[in-house]
Amino acid sequence: MVKTYRAAIVGGRRGVHHARAYQDLENMEVVAICEVDDQRRASAEAELNVTGYADYEQMLEKEQLDIVHAVTMPTVPRHIWVEPAAQAGVGALVIEKPIALKPKEAERLDAAQEKTGLKIVVNHQRRYLPFADKVREFQAEDKLGDVHFVRASTQGEITDMDTHLMDLVLLAVGDVPPTDVWATIEGGETYQTDLLNCPENLIAVYTFPKGIRAFFESTRQALGTADFPGSNPRCNIDIWATKGRMWWRENGSWGYLLDGTSQQFTEPTDFGQDDISAQRRLTQAIATWLIDESQSHHCRYQLAKLGFDAIMAAYRSALKGQRLTFPPYLQEAEWEQLQAKLTV
């Protein structure tokens, strides 16, 4: 008999969208939602036809959950969901990006994950796009050869988009840490009236092992997307390698061209539709990981933590005004210096 995994959503605004990814998955179902706002909770209960809770730990106690899917704003520290879930016997926790806004938050999340051993997935659903599948296939079969340059750009709020962009860069280079970074920042990003303690604009050049260079641009008005006609500048990436190139444009196209062969491909992208499919695949892969330890999730926490550290390294380079090796990581005291600079 196939086990049905019981899931709960934390967060009644964007969480309803994520709950839809569980629909029609034969071995997964959403059975509860946790939301502190009475109106949003009532609305989510009615739409999803599930039990609503205002208290997280009460929900964990009563529902005997296998999966918790926390869809909360960046200002809510992610570590608060981990230990209660692990103590209640939850098998996997899904958290939103970014995993943290500053080093201290990331350290607390790291400590909670190490203490509990809980499987944590970060919602970087682009790793479940057909483009990402093809990147992994080409890497396994050495069809692109050695990557020598990656160009990545995104437009919008840094806390929303730069974590997705860095995740794609890491995928392109084989999920290895950078060796050094040279970056510049400008402005201070806010959410409503709260300073999010991060820059509004970031441009960085990363070096990875084997001399791979990555140009990384995450800004409100992305200069690097102007020459990508027909695309949505929210997220774009190009990969140049010794045997060919690949690209992906959000709401544009994705494809590849292999040198010296007839193997070339291009297909339109529509993120409104692509996101639905990728989110469902990400969700189904949680159950697969719970069933089979060897089937690691493509969006597991350790990969997102590497991306967070790489972005923080760019902040540190901008703060120091010079090219820096990686590690060391950005320290909390340096973060406070950066915050003061952004506030000014």
Q: What structural keywords apply?
A:
single chain; alpha/beta; Rossmann fold; Dihydrodipicolinate Reductase, domain 2; nine-stranded mixed sheet; six-stranded parallel sheet; 10 helices
Give a summary of the structure in a few sentences:
This protein has 10 helices and 15 strands.
Q: What is the strand and helix layout of this fold?
A:
Layout: E1 5-10, H1 15-20, E2 28-34, H2 38-48, E3 51-53, H3 56-63, E4 67-70, H4 82-87, E5 92-95, H5 103-116, E6 119-122, H6 130-141, E7 147-155, H7 158-173, E8 180-191, E9 194-208, E10 212-219, E11 236-241, E12 244-249, E13 253-258, E14 264-268, H8 271-291, H9 301-320, E15 324-325, H10 332-343
Parallel strand pairs: 1-2, 1-4, 2-3, 4-5, 5-6, 7-10
Antiparallel strand pairs: 7-11, 8-9, 8-15, 9-10, 11-12, 12-13, 13-14
Helix pairs in contact: 7-9
Report on this structure:
By secondary structure, the chain is of the alpha/beta class. It folds into 2 domains: about 5-125 and about 275-290, Rossmann fold (3-Layer(aba) Sandwich); about 125-270 and about 305-335, Dihydrodipicolinate Reductase, domain 2 (2-Layer Sandwich). It has helices spanning about 15-20, 40-50, 55-65, 80-85, 105-115, 130-140, 160-175, 270-290, 300-320, 330-344, and strands at about 5-10, 30-35, 50-55, 65-70, 90-95, 120, 145-155, 180-190, 195-210, 210-220, 235-240, 245-250, 255-260, 265-270, 325. A 9-stranded mixed β-sheet has the order 14-13-12-11-7-10-9-8-15. The protein has a 6-stranded parallel β-sheet with strand order 3-2-1-4-5-6, with helices on both faces. It starts with a strand and ends with a helix. The mean pLDDT is about 90.
